[in-house]
């Protein structure tokens, strides 16, 4: 039988570590579930329209997967992917931040010299570009 | 006298307004126009610096016919470490070497007549890095989106400046510089002459620069929407085993691309990166700007798609033409040199304009123009 002191310490430790951890996981869970899958953002420029394709995989507050461009034969693996509430951030062919708002993922792609490119991604099920 | 004064008053008022606009718009935009002009004159020759700085491995002496591309590729592949492979080949004219870009980041410069490796470059070149930095200064002053807005504003201002400048020049219509006059008058004349002779080119540079930044008016002008690029075509992976040992070599693929798009010269070959990838063969034009692409199945050699520039939406073609107008890439060195000189004339116009304001020539000396 654990001593009363040990019980108290266990409860305190659980309060300090487990509850915030569980809260964080629960808080990010809805966004994480919604983000999972394929998203496509269309971009206009250089006389054409093309797409960024995001293949997201989520695990708790961690975001992994790949980013592709419809015009390039490349897959950029997502690094440092994080989900905090409805906000995401990751690195893959640029530094990305985004906010999930309803069915839209509003993304900002940070480029060199502080340039930012903004786009809106929508969930995609088909094998579109 | 009174009658003459009353008649000329409206004209003077309008002229003074344009003068005021030209002076203060010019003052605000001057520093940015100097930066844009200097950086633009450097960027105009961007395609040439490699050849100028390193002719020993960018240029070759033609000897008979170049080796077939497949033979060059095999020779290079045999010399590579395990894991490294060629992912792209940049072709050149008869006097130029070929650049083989490797997956490990190296670039091999090859003599196409004997397959000799002329130079190995590890990673990006310092020249390219410098040009990228100059380009960033040119389009955004190293200040992100805010810098881009400032440059765009200065470019729009320069359109107004060339038009108001022509209007102001019209009164005196000076066509040359009076070198024996005072230095103030010389500065004035240089401002006039650089603006006058550079007028058309300044206009082209400014208008094309604005259309590079904001393409929507370009789409409207050519009555066309941007090209909705389809997904990249893929090779038929199911044929990989069936065609093992019988897959077409690079020479066959290039011939197939020539048949698919006759008359256009190949300048780049992108080799497959993944099993599903297609071989991409890029060809110049048709026309003076832009490129076309032929996609081929790596296993069967079948033509998967041809992006023939002449058949793509006008908006896409207009993008290339506008960009070539801005960079001078239309006819190579001659047009690059013309646009570089125009960029420098823009710098001279901005500097002399500032000096005129600084010494208050425009307000104190009717003898020098007003």
Helix share of residues of chain B?
A: 40-55%
The end-to-end distance of chain A, rounded to whole angstroms, is 62 Å
Content of β-strand of chain A: over 45%
SS-derived structural category of chain B: alpha+beta
* Assembly annotation: heterodimer
Q: Please tally the helical runs of chain A, counting DSSP H or I stretches of 4 or more residues.
A: 1
Number of strands of chain A: 9
| Intertermini distance of chain B | 19 Å
Strand-and-helix sequence of chain A, N→C?
A: HEEEEEEEEE
Main beta-sheet strand count, sense and barrel state of chain A: 8 strands, antiparallel, barrel
Strands of chain B, total number: 9
The low-confidence runs of chain B, each spanning 5 or more residues with pLDDT under 50, are: 1-7, 365-370
Helix content of chain A: 10-25%
Order of helices and strands of chain B: HHHHEEEEHHHHHEHHEEEEHHH
List the helices and strands and how they pair.
The complex is a heterodimer of chains A (129) and B (370).
Chain A: H1 4-35, E1 37-45, E2 48-59, E3 62-69, E4 75-77, E5 79-84, E6 87-91, E7 95-101, E8 104-110, E9 116-123
Antiparallel strand pairs in A: 1-2, 1-9, 2-3, 3-4, 3-5, 5-6, 6-7, 7-8, 8-9
Chain B: H1 2-43, H2 49-53, H3 55-58, H4 69-79, E1 86-90, E2 98-102, E3 106-110, E4 117-122, H5 126-140, H6 144-172, H7 183-197, H8 199-213, H9 216-221, E5 227-228, H10 239-242, H11 250-260, E6 266-270, E7 279-284, E8 291-296, E9 303-307, H12 314-327, H13 333-358, H14 361-364
Antiparallel strand pairs in B: 1-2, 1-6, 2-3, 3-4, 6-7, 7-8, 8-9
